[in-house]
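Q: What structure does this chain adopt?
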Amino acid sequence: MPAPTAVQQAADTLRVWIEQGVVDGGPALPGEIELARRLKVSRGTVRQVLAQLSAGGLITARRHRGRKVRSPVAVGADQAVVMIGGGVDHAVPEPYEGAVEDACVRTLRAHRYPLLVVNGSQTLPSHALALLGRRPLGIIVAQFLMVQERWAAQARAWAEAGIPVVVHSHDAAHAAFDRVASDHQGGCRALVAALIAQGRRRIMPVWHTDARPAWLLQREAGWRQAVADAGLALLEPVRPLVMKERSNQADPRDLDLRARGYLGFLFDRLRGPAAPDALLAVNDNHAWGVAGACRLLGLNVHAQVAVAGFDANWGEHWDLHHGGIPPLLTVTKHNHRVGEALVEVLEERLARGSGGAPIHRLLPVEVQRAGG
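A:
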């Protein structure tokens, strides 16, 4: 197959930008000079690109009015649902957060809604609806965007304008929205209870220090409840500096470096008669580093000190095949079910109409034995 030409490459890039809503200026496209700068091509190439997209019906051009995006809604479709997240439009394994958006998009399509998928990571909130020629039927906003105030503020503005907005959020500050959340508090309570049932009596969380999101505070409440239920002593959590999440293509030295990073925070707490016999990592990703730190201290991981995770994605990790120790227990949030629930809540709101109490769905999670 011949390599794509510069015109075709630029046309493909601009088409993706338009579809994801990342082109500034609302439905009006930037001028040729600005597009040439962004696409890193000549102005002549830009003109060919624009002619190609115009012939394909994606944009329109009027004399003295410039070029505009032709909205898919404006050319005959019914009102669309807008999914604003990471631009996910492909299959994502359930343990990963992107699986929520994947299931949401698939469910909307199965229910035959016109759909606009917007990548909020590359879009200004005020431009998220730029491709729509009319008011959307409803909007669903992903969790990672709702923790950003600019997106939360925009979601409030849409809701105040009477547009149905459903959010994936665990934050009580978003209680006025229709929303879906996973039961982090109940999940951590069940996780700690499972460790206690295995004979663990000194269970210590290893939490982040520079961020205390709502879901983490809920997990801490679940840990405290389970420990209190069993009449055990509360061990002050260790709060190491947040370490970057690893990719599955990490350097072989990465596991050792992360383990040594955790070791600096755990060294004193893992020694002596008062040492914990179980550690709660913030997720499976970090559980590998916590287990590695225990191993560097000469501890028999899961025999002397158990390490538990969260999110149930340990089986997807690179460390599994490079000498890492997976968590003993983990918790699955059933992310595909979360995505389906977001659509169900939107449909319930559309059936009810505006007004009335917000619709809240708190979905159960499940403790699972992992690879330890």
